[in-house]
Specification:
Helix content is 35%, strand content 4%. By secondary structure, the chain is mainly α. It has a two-stranded antiparallel ribbon.
Amino acid sequence: MTTFYKGAFERCSWCNGRGCNQCHLERKKYEDQFKTPQPLFSADVNDPEDMQLLKEVFGRQALEHAFGPDGDGMQEIEQAAALASFKQAMRKHNKTAPTMACPQCGAEYEDFDGLGVLHCEQCGYCKHASITDGHCDYCEQAQGT
């Protein structure tokens, strides 16, 4: 009588599907064969900045340089695509970054930490929130004690 265990992988090369401690690795190896590769770079055709990045990676000049005498071929294209993808991600992140206005002059600042405007370079506003040695790190004004 042959016993099959729950979680056994029928194509396991170690146990032929009966169940062993290698089934999960064999299953992963089998499934990895069918994963679709991710694109080097994807662009939104309605976004002019994405189209410019696409042109920098796959445009005529970029391809001529990459496959020309002093180019690195596909490696250069892959590096340019990775750089363009990073630029695209940073640009889209910065578009959605929260902003905060200075309470005195109304100047806009990015608010990545959620603390609001601690110091305004335009009008000199200071919240004195960054105190480490008894003096504000922004305006050097004595604080506390």
